[in-house]
């Protein structure tokens, strides 16, 4: 007789053999081992069949959780495209292919062991080597025995799906460097070298041995060499200074241009009138070193990638219809005349003609207007529109442009007023005042020395103008903010522009959406209570929720995993409220009790969000979804409440308030049953109190609130569902790192201010020696780019060091400590 388990055994948590997570929601058994989902079990079976279970001996529960949304079988079909293949691979010949993938799921020694034994799972793979630090794997395979799609499918099946985005397959455009600058530098270098050669006798006081004729000849040759320096190599400085003066302003090139003109003019006076050698060699050296500094700045800007990595969040594939069959192709391969399918909440990638009787297109991505526009068959649907409701088919009329989608995100409709005290504008104002101060000091030094030694006056005047160039001051802000933006992008936090960093640093109030933002559909549990569901009714529900990207719809969709959906008509989704559709003669609706007119008749069955089901006016039942917060949120929110005012806005009822208070802490102010308009009004009310608001939402129902906040962050798990009203896009898995991002934004401001101090200190010391005539213009020309280099090095090293100390790394984001 089997013994009854003890009370302790009953309450003991059973953990998954593969990933280590609890098996509370689902428990599967195989070989006396427990698994939390079919995904983990499948990976185990694959490894077991290939005698690779040593994977589990290296570390306990080394795998990653395999609970994920159902993906279409043709998900990786775009990898069969020749152009995409050629852009992704590292090398190919007739026999083999080399390719490198970024695998974000790599986390332990077992991962390395498994990936480097891929050849046991697929004999066509001949080599696999993991770079653990960069989370990359280089794979070599025999192209006659397998293909790229099969390799990626294999990696996905064992829990290591590669991260492939638009930036990986986008055609790289080679940067065109400013060749004119190189030519100007070459001319200045050639002339400077020869002028130094002709001036050597003067440096060694041997000019009298040459005789007057040779001395004058060398002076005249120096004049000839100085002409291309002044009238070619220095032209950009003259042009920039003239444009500034025409616009009644002063930029940093004005003092440089004045220094060049004064040095050239005085040298001509010295040679032709006074019979002296002049300072033309000094002038040549001055331009040569200035242009070296300018070239260095250009190269540094090219090296530091300030690209907006949000391109990684644009869809790389689109569903193309070929003889009524779906074929997933890369967006870059979409051509005029192609027939495409666009599902609910997906973006229309190109101007297209509607082929179905009607559609409802949300153009808020283009115009900012939230009301969907009804479109009839044969009408033109513009790129950037978002489909609302049932999937539609379209005929492409114009080639898609990824750059156009980028422009839409930066559309003036979603622009926010700039901060008056932004560091960028502060830098510009300081640079202007600084230049006027420099000119005043330079002319003062010239007048002072002219009474005793006019030659010394010219030297002091030119030295002051050159050594105090505010280049370093002007460079500190863009270099610091650009580097911060680059570090954010590497960590899955994509900003619209660098001004967002400055706004993040001033935030004092955080407002979070709940469903899909703090909570994760994959961590929710579903239970149904009501009339029994037939196969037909399940198919109706499956088809209805399949049209929605709302987190609750997604969870019900997963709950009906293996149900075959029926074909619905007149599908309509009311944002944040519910869905309705027709099936044969029946009307099916799902949503909140208020939306369905149930009022107080609905009973609370269980804690959690409720989605009611009504068929032909009859309340059929209710789905109760118990939310689960994203990983790390239970620590992140209490930590944030120590520094910020934190509020939660939710369109759901308050059934989960007690649970959320326990998880998030009692300091979080919570407001429920908030419509999109209510959220917008709430944020404006907070701002009227003088507070600076950061709104964090899922981008589906929060467009107004995201736009209203000083900063709006769209948290997304789906690359095609972010909101144009947001200032940033944040990978849902990285939401728990938000405190780090906010801290790092403040650090960036402090680094900029420190670089201002460094630049002022350098210039003050330089002026002190320059007004006394203790430094030559050539030495000043060397020190001026050196100051710029020092500021760039300071800001770059400081930001990277602070990122490292905070746990932000360019190759991976490690846990916040």
Automatic annotation (TrEMBL):
The chain crosses the membrane at residues 181-200, 220-238, 250-273, 279-296, 434-451, 457-481, 756-775, 781-801. PROSITE patterns: ATPASE_E1_E2, HMA_2. One of its GO terms (biological process) is copper ion homeostasis. Belongs to the cation transport ATPase (P-type) (TC 3.A.3) family. Type IB subfamily. This is Type cbb3 cytochrome oxidase biogenesis protein CcoI. Keywords: Cell membrane, Ion transport, Magnesium, Membrane, Metal-binding, Phosphoprotein, Translocase, Transmembrane, Transmembrane helix, Transport. GO terms for molecular function: ATP binding; ATP hydrolysis activity; copper ion binding; P-type divalent copper transporter activity. One of its GO terms (cellular component) is plasma membrane. It comes from Cyclobacterium amurskyense. CDD domains: HMA. Residues 97-163 form the HMA domain. It is a multi-pass membrane protein. It is found in: Cell membrane. InterPro entries: ATPase-cat-bd, ATPase_P-typ_cyto_dom_N, ATPase_P-typ_P_site, ATPase_P-typ_TM_dom_sf, ATPase_P-typ_transduc_dom_A_sf, ATPase_P-type_domA, HAD-like_sf, HAD_sf. Gene3D superfamilies: 3.30.70.100, Calcium-transporting ATPase, cytoplasmic domain N, Calcium-transporting ATPase, cytoplasmic transduction domain A, HAD superfamily/HAD-like.
